[in-house]
Write a structure and sequence with these properties.
- Belongs to the dihydrofolate reductase family.
- Pathway: Cofactor biosynthesis; tetrahydrofolate biosynthesis; 5,6,7,8-tetrahydrofolate from 7,8-dihydrofolate: step 1/1.
- By secondary structure, this protein is of the alpha/beta class.
- The chain has one domain: Dihydrofolate Reductase, subunit A, CATH 3.40.430.
- Helix content is 33%, strand content 27%.
- It is built from seven helices and eleven strands.
- Strands 1, 2, 3, 4, 5, 6, 7, 8, 9, 10 and 11 form an eleven-stranded mixed beta sheet that branches.
Length: 290
């Protein structure tokens, strides 16, 4: 089967964890490995992120996953049950996206997610009514001042759909993708598909590369002190399925330009380090080549 036209884009924040290789068989090789350790990519600790809140990365994630490619479409975010539960209860499901949860306990999780969705939609509707009331009062005020100058025109883009909040629960990643493409996709409402974790879901997404294009938009996160002292790392117990050294052409990956990443996400990405408090972050992109 040829790759799908609608690629999977993995969105992940990682931090480098130097780890001596365990494949050496001699003292000389062991010494060489210690001098050039494998860089594992840490993504989690105790079911949450290994680092404190990083505003730069969180706002980047929110913007690119909720920004649809067309006004009538909605992006989908695919995640495991633990990742869904790691979202603050007051924020889930995340708005303006199709929250797609993959779990073995479909019935129990679906009931809970549907309850979350109902409460979220009620909040959205209340907020929408409030905004409409404010807009109506604003129009009345402008019209009152515009005596005889004609009707007030809507501003560009006003009233356009910018993504609908929805939720889907499936037993596996392939089932989730098929469900999205058979429902939202068939109706022409499916935007981009973003995989947001955790490790098992990332691994499953990487395994789909024979049937569809796979991209990675990765945020590197480092302590500022890491540049001078490689022991200054975040503690992690969960890792991205592919080590940093393996994201190269030999292993079927291409590091793409900042311009290409910008085209993927719909905003300018420089590929340069950005300092945010005690850490620095850099957004980069990789594309599967085989």
């Amino acid at each position: 089967m040829p790759p799908s036209k609608n690629p999977l884009t993995l969105i992940v924040a990682t931090t480098p964890i130097p780890t001596p290789t365990t494949t050496t068989t001699t003292i000389q090789n062991a010494a060489a490995a210690a001098a050039a350790p494998t860089l594992r990519l840490g993504i989690g600790l105790n079911g949450t992120l290994p680092w404190p809140r990083i505003k730069t990365d969180m706002s980047f994630f929110a913007r690119i996953t909720s920004r649809p490619p067309a006004s009538h479409t909605t992006n989908a975010i695919l995640m495991g049950r633990k990742t869904y539960d790691s979202i603050p209860a007051t924020l889930r499901p995340l708005v303006k996206r199709v929250n797609t949860v993959v779990t073995r306990s479909v019935d129990d999780v679906r009931q809970r997610v549907e309850g979350d969705l109902q409460r979220r939609r009620e909040k959205e509707e209340a907020k929408k009514r409030e905004e409409e009331e404010k807009e109506e009062k604003k129009k009345e005020g402008v019209q009152g001042q515009a005596l005889g100058l004609g009707q007030v025109q809507s501003s560009p883009g006003q009233g356009q759909t910018q993504g609908q909040t929805d939720a889907v629960v499936c037993a596996g990643l392939e089932e989730a993708i098929e469900t999205l493409e058979a429902t939202h996709g068939k109706e022409g409402r499916l935007g981009q598909m973003f995989v947001i974790g955790g490790a098992e879901i990332y691994a499953a997404a990487l395994a789909t590369q024979k049937t569809r294009a796979v991209r990675i938009v990765m945020t590197f996160v480092e302590k500022l002190a890491y540049e001078q002292d490689r022991t200054q790392v975040f503690e992690c117990d969960t890792f991205f399925p592919v080590d940093q050294e393996l994201l190269n052409e030999t292993n079927g990956w291409k590091r793409v330009s900042a311009q290409e990443v910008s085209e993927w996400v719909g905003e300018t990405v420089t590929g340069e380090w950005i300092v945010d408090g005690e850490v620095r972050v850099k957004m980069v992109g990789y594309e599967r080549t085989n």
